[in-house]
Amino acid sequence: METVVQLSNAVAVLGQFPVLAGANLTVQRGEIVLLQGPNGAGKTSLLRLFAGLLPLARGEGTVLGCDLRTNRESVRKRVGLLGHANGLYNDLNVTENVRFWGATVGASAAEVDAAMQRMGLAQRLAKVPVSRLSAGQKRRTALACLVARRAELWLLDEPHAGLDAAGRDELDATLREATSAGATIIVASHELERAGALATRLVEVVGGQIRESGAG
Amino acid sequence: MFRIARLVAAKDLRIELRSRVVTNQVLPFAVIVMVMFAFALNTDEIVTRVAPGLVWLATLFSLLTLVQRSFAIETSDGAMDAMRSAGVDPAGLFLGKACALAAQLAVLEVVLLALAVVLYSAKLHPGGVVLLVTTFLTATTGLALVGTLYGGLAAGVRGRETLLPLLLLPVVAPVLIGATRATEAALGTGGAVVADGWPWLGLLGVFVALFSVGGTLAFGPLIEE
């Protein structure tokens, strides 16, 4: 198994507040790991650390083999972070959005088409402006952008928020399919029942510490 | 860097073609400002004398709206954050947004100059055409570079709508002065001759050089949290 994320005694600080205090975690390729914990426990900060947006103050950490202390720019290019916003342009259609994000890494037209096919966007929705999509369809478009960007590790912050039941089912199916195609996914969510059923491993974040809390 | 710049500029211009914010909102706003100037100054002689300054003032006011719009499309659904987290080259992002902004400003300025001829009786002289075109190109580039730099700075800040004019207007004062003087020389306003305009164009050139290098280097750290 290939190790995608490796944290060892990791300490991270946001402003003056410690968000990680000596945390240890290993994530293997193809896993769907659920980060759970109360508000303010540091789940989002942990995702931002994995995305190369938050510096590692002490300890060791690598993501996709890149050091989180010295090589955060390389981490950013290979990781896809999807927060509460989708990062889409409402005046462009679905294809134009996916094409734009793919082009930032030099993706070919075939790669963009494949990303849209994989997310079920290639037929009916391809030419629809993003402003006219439902919340679930926007999420799928954002995930297609991650695929087109060749993101190997997907970091999803509350991915089910704002979706109706059908949208949630659709998203779960998409994520399962993505891991079978080689992606590794780390999800931060409050919705233990929903996200727990999706995850292959549950991890609890409490007071800057990470605890394994079982398999999904 | 230049690949990302081309990509971002094309994306911004495509969004403008779809939304038509410049044509439907900014352009009418600029036209109204020009008409209001004519009402306020009333006398033909004064209006003709100050026409170059009025064109550039109307351009500056429109710039504020254009810059707000340019960054609103990036922040409305978190695209700016997504760019940052995706490691998109910030220098390319800066240059791309500045190019798109310059293109939109250029269209606006052509209309404003035509309006100045119609409303303010400004006269174009064949001898001043080269200076006039060069001045407009250089000043537009300068405004687009500064607008993008400060737009990026204000994009992540609360109260950005009111903060942007406060930050931007003092910085673009040299462009307003240089462009107005050079335009006066090109149009022969108030007895100015074409030769008077070239030193002002030099000032604009220095401004563009400073902000193209400074902006390219500073944009990344500025948009970082």
Topology diagram in text:
The complex is a heterodimer of chains A (216) and B (225).
Chain A: E1 3-14, E2 17-28, E3 32-36, H1 43-50, E4 58-63, E5 66-67, H2 72-78, E6 79-82, H3 94-103, H4 109-118, H5 135-148, E7 153-157, H6 165-180, E8 184-188, H7 192-198, E9 201-206, E10 209-215
Chain B: H1 2-19, H2 21-41, H3 44-75, H4 79-85, H5 90-119, H6 129-155, H7 160-171, H8 173-187, H9 194-223
Characterise the protein shown here.
The complex is a heterodimer of chains A (216) and B (225). Chain A is of the alpha/beta class and 216 residues long. Chain A has one domain: Rossmann fold, CATH 3.40.50.300. Chain A is built from seven helices and ten strands. In chain A, strands 6-7-8-3-9-10 form a six-stranded mixed beta sheet, sandwiched between helices. The radius of gyration of chain A is 17 Å and the shape is globular. Chain A starts with a strand and ends with a strand. In chain B, helix 2 crosses helix 5. Chain B is 85% helix and 0% strand. Chain B has one domain. Chain B has 225 residues and is mainly α.
Largest beta-sheet details of chain B: none
Indicate the overall shape of chain B: globular
Q: Helical amount among residues of chain B, as a percent range?
A: over 70%
Structural class label of chain A: alpha/beta
* SS element count, helices of chain B: 9
What is the total tally of β strands of chain A? 10
Largest interface: A-B, 30 and 22 residues
